[in-house]
Amino acid sequence: MSLSGASERSVPATKIEITVSCRNLLDLDTFSKSDPMVVLYTQSRASQEWREFGRTEVIDNTLNPDFVRKFVLDYFFEEKQNLRFDVYNVDSKTNISKPDFLGQAFLALGEVIGGQGSRVERPLTGVPGKKCGTILLTAEELSNCRDIATMQLCANKLDKKDFFGKSDPFLVFYRSNEDGTTVKIDVYDWDRDGSHDFIGEFTTSYRELSKAQNQFTVYEVLNPRKKCKKKKYVNSGTVTLLSFSVDSEFTFVDYIKGGTQLNFTVAIDFTASNGNPLQPTSLHYMSPYQLSAYAMALKAVGEIIQDYDSDKLFPAYGFGAKLPPEGRISHQFPLNNNDEDPNCAGIEGVLESYFQSLRTVQLYGPTYFAPVINQVARAAAKISDGSQYYVLLIITDGVISDMTQTKEAIVSASSLPMSIIIVGVGPAMFEAMEELDGDDVRVSSRGRYAERDIVQFVPFRDYVDRSGNQVLSMARLAKDVLAEIPEQLLSYMRTRDIQPRPPPPANSRPTPAPEQP
């Protein structure tokens, strides 16, 4: 009989504890130093309004406070969780209800978690003509014990409870105290009608169980009632612990904190079915008033993933276009027109290159996914130590023309540190795309099945806000298409037995604010 401590997975909110420090604050007190306090505000996704979340304590007479009171936030990788930290000087000698403003910093929770060792340093701004100092933020995941205990047991000479046959035993484990040191185990005979018969019980401890890594441990199964009634009662059988092992279950945050980077690549459909980009009916139309569906999808996904990529350089490609000057059809051309270095600086850089390509290339066809999937797969294949994980975003308006080759590419890529997000834009029917999303049936090619489910497909139209709120539309899209990325990363790490690297020491320099491209 083999029993495992593993249970069905669920994805509750991850609790993140934020520690706050400040350095070189403004000194607004005449005869002493400032008495700082930090107020945290969170931003509503729907209304974009800022709401106070909490406050630190006030620390007297210092320009370099390390606050004791921490902020505990629910963290969702797939959401852009904007934070605002306002710093005040609270001088009780003047008016505590009107503290002096010392500066503020804006950033996303993902930026803190994605910083080196989940630590970032940001300049405080907001006081004209003054250097306001910096704020240092450290993120720590709050979690219970994540150890998974796996044990193998066998039983001998258990009391017979069935009239016409032997018992059908099973065990029930109880933790008898809060620290989990004592474990009580009941032994039952299973009955089809649910009226299971109690055979006996025994107690042990975590320390005693762990000894089974080196030796067998035999437990007497005792029935308290029988022991009281029968003087010659010995036991109701024995249970022998044959093996016991403990494995740690790591989280997405563990890997990010240990330095795993998310490498984001974009591939955009430039086929003629999108329509003339100069016409308002085109899916690529560059309106001065609002973003196209392509731009919204790119911005929605990219602005979240960029927090987990330290250099903020993103390869961006187009496919299905005729390129100047000779009109060569390409299914994998760099949007920045640089074959040697397809990287764009930040998501804004990707958008600029995308808009520039719309002005220079001719939309044509057909729609091929395999070339760009294989391009990213080649990069992912070079790094297998868990330090890099690749995310490819493909945005398209229609059914692909190389389904057989695309399936082959996905099956091959499923063994690599890589995920693929496909967003369908426009009114087309995308039934064929569902075949690539392996939620129900794994993608297969020539009798070979994908090792992991690495593809997520969604039609953008399902997330468009009816009132025209583009921010809300992008948030809805990102929440759905990115939700599977953490588990896909973990599934790769588990299958390769890759553990997170230890985070850098606490005294190392935190990640500074990225330079603006």
List keywords for this structure.
517 residues; alpha+beta; Immunoglobulin-like; Rossmann fold; 3 domains; seven-stranded mixed beta sheet; four-stranded antiparallel beta sheet; 27 strands; 20% helix; disordered N terminus
Structural write-up:
The chain has about 525 residues and is of the alpha+beta class. It folds into 3 domains: about 130 residues, Sandwich (Immunoglobulin-like), CATH 2.60.40; about 100 residues, Sandwich (Immunoglobulin-like); about 240 residues, Rossmann fold (3-Layer(aba) Sandwich), CATH 3.40.50.410. Strands 16, 17, 20, 21, 23, 24 and 27 form a 7-stranded mixed beta sheet that branches. The chain has a 4-stranded antiparallel beta sheet with strand order 1-10-15-14. A 4-stranded antiparallel beta sheet has the order 5-2-9-8. Helix 5 packs across helix 10 and helix 7 packs parallel to helix 8. The longest helix is centred in the C-terminal third of the chain and has 15 residues. The radius of gyration is 29 Å and the shape is flat. It starts with a strand and ends in a 22-residue tail after the last helix. One of its GO terms (biological process) is cellular response to calcium ion. Belongs to the copine family. One of its GO terms (molecular function) is calcium-dependent phospholipid binding. This is Copine-9 isoform X2.
